[in-house]
Amino acid sequence: MRDVAVVGFAQRQMEEFDGSPTCVEMLVPLFAECYEQTGWNRHDIGFWCSGSSDYLAGRSFSFVSAVDAIGVIPPINESHVEMDAAWALYEAWLKIQTGEVDTALVYGFGKASAGVLRRTLALQLDPYSMTPLWPDTVSLAGIQARTGIEAGVWDERAMAEVVNRSLTDAEKNEYAIRKGGSSVEELLARPMYADPLRKHDCSPVTDGAAAIILAADDRARSVADRPAWITGLAHNVDPISMGNRDLTRSPSTAAAVRGLDLGGVEVAELHAPFSHQELVLRTELGLADDVAINPSGGALAGNPMFTGGLIRFGEAAKKVWDGSADKVLAHATSGPALQQNLVCVMEGREKAEH
Amino acid sequence: MFYFLTMPRTLSAPVTVAFDYTRSTGPVVGRFLTGLRDGVLVAGRTSAGDVVVPPLEFDPGTHEATADFVEVAPVGTVTSWSWVPEPVAGQPFDRPFAFALVTLDGATRPFFHAVDVASPAQMSTGMRVRVRWAEERVGHINDIACFEPLPAGDAAATAGAAANQSAVDEDPQREPTPVTGVITPVSLDYVYAASPEESAFYSALLEGKIVGQRCPTCQKVYVPPRSACPADGVAPTELVELPDTGTLTTFCIVNVPFLGQKITPPYVSAYVLLDGADIAFLHLILDIPADEVRMGMRVKAVWKPRDEWGTTIENIDHFRPTGEPDADYDTYKHHL
User: Fold this and answer.
1) Beta carbons of A69 and B228 less than 8 Å apart
2) A164-203 pLDDT, tens digit each
3) Distance from C-alpha of A205 to C-alpha of B86, rounded to nearest angstrom
4) Least CB–CB distance from B25: residue in A24, A128, A247
5) Backbone angles phi, psi at B245, to 5 degrees
């Protein structure tokens, strides 16, 4: 296996982007930031991979339009996933492992505010028994939250604690679109929205984009004092049906980390678009109490569709870059109610054999 | 006194994207939907003994196609639910309701659907509900209109009291033809915004002008302008006004009629390279017989009457020949 590290990261998050859903306008300065961090230009990038969806853009081939932001003369080596861009990162990591390329730029983008996000996402469900009912994302999360509450696995107070910590930490995040902690009591006193969820239990609809540069071996060492070396990366999937899995658990998260060494993780950026989902993930990951969870504020402070997971990678990698952590974890989710989960371990030190 | 002209940074317009998804069902999903049409709930039994509605196409343990079908009751117990305070278009109700997981009597796994109650106070896990069938059933999940609470005193109000599962009835009288396909209309509404550069282009058209963008790196002029030069990936810094004359680089004669066609064939669709631009754009060529159109022909825009102009490329009705001598091939060969 080649040693691959995260060496560049840039992001934008906003409540409502007033430009084209192709997001080219947002991506050009993000790529420029990544070039500045590495001293590279587009000709130094061996592979490009993006995560986005035409259903969000309301137009066809939006990912092809987005390629304008790269510049494609001479032609580039490019791919795309219709998932959170964290899965694009996985593809890019594999591409580097093949030895075909040494560097990759991964990006995701989405203008969720162009449509009704919680409705649009019904199109990712079973087309025979689910999509025709237009189950919205919030309702599916509400069913999951109640399952855990009534089974005694978590309670509303624990959910409010997640929210309060996230929104308090988000005050330090310039990109957060929802921020400002109060108290668990004050949060619990707020009205129900989609009973059993209050609005603050749900991540805000967010427009945005993010980009990450991966580099292998000496290419990474040459551009970063402390690259965030990927020492573990895996993803797994649960059945899509809400009725055929234990909604209080995330077997796919547990399966993804089975081969990873999580010992010594100091910071974990978890992609939990709903407050109770952080509780599910923490249990499945078996994180110790002293692990800092989502110091960025996490998805409850801002969750651009197709980028919310990739941003977790960038936020976690930054902790390695600045020396504030030696070992971090990044997680991304996709699909309804934590159906698909991807987990990555990054470290400041290279693997033992080096 | 100063007057500030306040305009949004970009133009936007509502867009609806709609498509009727037509899907074949396969034998297992078809069996379930055939049951709905006939007013029965068909479940599948897994190798682990679970009874699942809708039946799984393949067994999660053995991966064999599901072949063991049973009927379960149209009555069941709510195992979890969420209130839907602000329904979105297409959901079973346009007023608040609940989505719920309901374990039907005879099944071991819950089934997802709506429950028709007026407030979350009327919902509880463990409550007994029954299917309310749609007035017309066609073999679609919407054949179940929703679930509704069982009236107090109903014999089935206690879990387990209702009829349990039974083998699927193969009575040919009930199944004249199995359901093999479903049609699900999908319609999504967006507010589609143009980029700032596209907005400048469409705003200029309102003034009868054509605006392009020059790449600061390669100096090429794109029309319509883009948010980045597709060759170099750099943002534009200079918008340039272009004339409404140009050269036809390549074309096709449209002979085939199609849905929504506005002009009677044959007519000519062509790439027009405006003078000073480096990329051609597609428009219509009229005022000349189709068989006389040729590469290199010089053309000029024919604008609609000014009072019909909007922020649209349709302000230009079509391009017509100018009568000038044809352009030399070398002047446009790099733009083909």
Assistant:
1) yes
2) 999 999 999 999 999 998 999 999 999 999 999 999 999 9
3) 15
4) A128
5) -115, 155
Q: Which of A14, A17, A20, A40 best tests the B interface by mutation, with the highest count of B CBs <10 A?
A: A20
In sequence order, what DSSP letters do the residues of A36-54 get, joined into one string? HHHT--GGG--EEEEE--H
User: Which residues, 6+ apart, have CB-to-CB distance to B132 below 8 Å?
Assistant: B116, B144, B145, B146, B147, B148
CB contact under 8 A, B141 and A132: yes
Residues of chain B with pLDDT under 50: 1-5, 161-163
Q: Specify if B81 maps to a domain.
A: yes
Cross-chain residue pair B82–A69, CB shorter than 8 Å: no
Tell whether B159 and B264 lie within a shared domain: no
Question: What DSSP character marks residue B284?
Answer: E
Give the residue from A352, A335, A334 showing the smallest Cα distance to A343.
Answer: A334
Between CA B184 and CA B192, with CA B190 as vertex, the angle to 5 degrees is: 140
How confident is the model over A60-100, as pLDDT tens digits?
Answer: 888 899 999 999 989 999 999 999 999 999 999 999 999 99
The B residues from 227 to 256 touching A (CB cutoff 8 Å) are: 227-235
Q: How many CB pairs below 8 A link A and B?
A: 194
Eight-state DSSP code of residue B208:
T
CB B106 within 8 A of CB B50: no
Q: Which of A15, A94, A24 is nearest to A52 (CA)?
A: A24
pTM above 0.90, yes or no: yes
B-chain CB neighbours of A27 within 8 Å are 228
Which residue range(s) make up the domain with B228? 194-335
CA distance B90 to chain A (A): 6
Same-domain check for residues B175 and B201: no
Selecting from B60, B80, B83 the residue whose C-beta is nearest the C-beta of A194 gives B83
Q: Are residues B76 and B175 in the same domain?
A: yes
**Residue among B45, B51, B53, B112 with most chain A CBs within 10 A, to mutate:** B112
With a cut of 80, say whether residue A292 has pLDDT above it: yes
Q: What is the tally of structural domains in chain B?
A: 2
Task: Mark which of B121, B154, B185 sits at the end of a domain.
Answer: B185
The tens digit of pLDDT for each residue in A10-69 reads: 999 999 999 999 999 999 999 999 999 999 999 999 999 999 999 998 988 888 999 999
A14 min Cα distance to partner chain B (Å): 16
Q: Which domains does chain A have, with CATH numbers?
A: 1-348 (3.40.47.10)
Are B295 and B250 a contacting pair, CB within 8 Å? yes
A136/B10 Cβ within 8 A: no
Chain B residues whose CB is inside 8 A of the A146 CB are 80-82, 125
CA distance B215 to B193: 23
